[in-house]
Specification:
It is a single chain. This protein is mainly β. The protein has one domain: Outer membrane phospholipase (ompla), Chain C (Beta Barrel), CATH 2.40.230. Helix content is 10%, strand content 57%. It has helices at residues 21-38, 231-236; strands at 2-9, 45-58, 63-70, 74-77, 82-94, 102-104, 107-115, 121-131, 144-156, 159-166, 169-172, 181-193, 196-209, 217-228. The model is unreliable at 13-29 and 231-237 (pLDDT under 50).
Amino acid sequence: MAVLLITFWVPTTNAGDSSQETSTTNTTTSAQELAKQKHNPFADQITLPLQISSELEVGPGNGTTAGLEFEPAIPISLGPNWKVIARPDLSVLDSEPPHRKFGLGDIELETYLTPGLFDKWVWGVGPALQAPTATASELGTGKWSAGPAVGLIYISGPWVNGILAHHLWSFAGQRDKRWTVPIGLDVGKTFQMGKQSLSLQFGTYNNVLRAEGVGRWLVRVQVTLTLPRHSADTEEK
């Protein structure tokens, strides 16, 4: 089972002199809303994150692993009231020594059915699937797995809080239990480029519960490009 706890505080910027107060306030509000939407996994926007990460204290030898991960979030409209968020996860991994391997990891896909409109609370629920696509046994589970995926997000003021969780059971291969619960901190900055935005983020996590082969610590650097899904419609209006 993988659980991600989400807590972000998006700071505001004090306005300048009175002659620029309105412009500064509008810019600050826009930047704050942009940053909050970036951290909302159920927002109606396409996010393209590229992440470089390293796990520390892996396995009995307390080794180090590394990975390059691409996990886009793609909203699919089901009408004005509902949408599906598809979150595929593609990775290139470097395993721990002494039998170090480099190659593709298992592919995962999480899908969430979520309301099209929301106020402060937003939820999502759906299936998760893992395919044994790893190019070496050290880089994957060797099993087909599936299970539920759920999420609950609360947005109020500058705060974005919530949880994303999924649990996988193998239905081909030896059954096992996999629990990973990371707790940590991310810091970052969002830059607006027209209707798109680019976010830079650095984080470190401690896996308080971890499956076999998962490190005690995770350090990551992430670059995310965000594309507003309805930018064309907005221009027409």
